[in-house]
Amino acid sequence: AKKAGRDQIRFFDFEMQEQADKRTELEAGIRKGLDSQEFCLYYQSQHEADGSVLGYEALVRWVREGVVIPPSDFIPQAEQSGLIIPLGQWILKTACEQLAKWKELPDKQHLSIAVNISAVQFQDPKFAQQVISLLDQTQAPADRLELEITESMLISDLDKIIDILLLLKTRGIRFSLDDFGTGYSSLDRLTNLPLDQLKIDQRFVRNLDKHSRDAAVVKTIIDLGRNLGLSVIAEGVETDNQRERLLELGCYQFQGYLFAKPALLPE
Ligand code: C2E
Ligand code: CA
Ligand code: CA
Ligand code: CA
């Protein structure tokens, strides 16, 4: 029994070692991917009730030897290793460069880009200053840039978070609360934040036509947004039925496969 125990321990170590190796490998891959420009941004359109395009959400992809890797396969490791800081910088810079290009085009200058910000990135003390530098560097119109934050990054000092939001908002940047309703932050904390938009999570949209419980949640989010003076957008809208239900409930902005899948922008 003693021997088996020792073997088990050895086996455990081996597994842990293997996992650690995989992590290091992935980390090295991300590092190299950043150097060799293997990352790209897909864009998914956001629509008004009449179907017109308001803007896009930027969604990162990693193209490795022709294979498109989704963010769920590398963002967690990028966060754990801290590589999300340079990767996130690249994402922001690329989105700002796109906005700067659109600024010159009369039929495109109204479009906004929403960029996902990870908690690790947001907690970096240099974050706000780096965003401001990027705006200056790229000459992007700040009022077309939207940053998507999540409830999970609202756990630390609320006053500090509010300061960062306000600093960036004086430049014209807007803030959207992504995946709203899936976290654990108290309403009190949320209502104190200087936000511009609530984003209804796709898990509530998914069952909208069948389950009245989800409809009740969606209705509550929409009413909360309206009472706080925020715009409300629903993500993961896949069917006409869902769009109709959302309209009935008072949500007039949409994003989802019903309209378009994330894709590269046409050149
Ligand atoms: P998210 O921010 O909630 O993004 C929405 C996800 O839903 C995207 O997955 C999008 O492709 C997908 N989606 C859009 N419409 C539909 C639909 O109608 N039905 C369904 N089933 N799905 C839809 P994606 O691109 O794989 O991104 C997954 C997550 O990875 C994002 O969730 C976000 O948390 C993270 N992520 C993506 N890009 C970035 C980025 O540039 N930076 C950071 N920090 N995180 C990112
Ligand atoms: Ca928006
Ligand atoms: Ca998002
Ligand atoms: Ca989301």
Q: Can you describe this structure?
A:
The protein is of the alpha/beta class. It is globular and about 60 Å long. It contains ten helices and nine strands. It starts with a helix and ends in a 13-residue tail after the last strand. The model has no long low-confidence stretch (mean pLDDT 92). Strands 1-2-4-5-6-7-8-9 form an eight-stranded mixed barrel. Bound molecules: ligand C2E and calcium ion (3 copies). Residues 46, 54-55, 112, 114, 146, 176, 197, 233 line the site of one calcium ion.
Number of E strands: 9
Runs in which pLDDT lies below 50 for 5 or more consecutive residues are: none
The hetero compounds bound to this protein are: ligand C2E, calcium ion
Order of helices and strands: HEEEHHEHHEHEHEHHEHE
Structural class: alpha/beta
**Strand-residue proportion:** 15-25%
Distance between the termini: 66 Å
The overall average pLDDT, rounded, is 92
Helix content: 40-55%
Largest sheet: 8 strands, mixed, barrel
Largest sheet: spatial strand order:
1-2-4-5-6-7-8-9
Quaternary: single chain
Q: Treating each run of at least 4 consecutive H or I residues as one helix, how many helices?
A: 10
Using only C-alpha atoms, the radius of gyration works out to 21 Å
Which descriptor suits the 3D outline?
Answer: globular
